[in-house]
Amino acid sequence: MVQWFDMWSVENPSEREEIQKEGLRESVSAILELIHQEAKIVPLERIFLGGISQGCATANLALLCGGMKLGGFVGLCSWMPLRAGVLDIASDHQPGLSNSSVSKRLRELLDIKPQDPEGNDKNVLSTPIFLSHSVNDEVVPIQNGRLLRDSLETLGMKVTWREYEDGGHWIYEPEDENI
User: Fold this and answer.
1) CATH no. for residue 155?
2) Which of 4, 58, 86, 128 has a Cα-to-Cα distance from 112 of 20 to 30 A?
3) In-domain check, residue 8
4) Is residue 25 part of a domain?
5) What is the pLDDT of residues 71-94, one digit of tens each?
6) 133 φ, ψ to 5°?
């Protein structure tokens, strides 16, 4: 897949967000369906989700919409799509609710049908997260990656974050054992 969803600008992903929703809805729904199919074979705690750049942005929303605790999430060189909506949901979120308010409201934002069975915030928000971004990324500014990290932390997720001086817009292979 060349592109997960249409967007106006990777430098400023909040610009013209309305054009992103249709593609995000389709891609997130496809990822969630794939996770449900895999979960029939492999336990959820052994399923990892991740991506680089736009793939990470899409996978991140799929994780949040799914309401399931997965084995982990790995995201590289990315951003939080529909960030204003996510932060609005986060401001209303009360940790410990038995319903799936974050996941449910994100699905409503994207007009995604409810999952069966629905997950809950406690599950999805406890999924381990690893994010990294190179300072010299010429495609997606590192500030966008920092905002992704901050958004997930605002939701109550624990994020392991790594910044690398070099690596550009790709997978940085550290010489130490950070990953």
Assistant:
1) 3.40.50.1820
2) 128
3) no
4) yes
5) 999 999 998 888 888 888 777 765
6) -155, 140
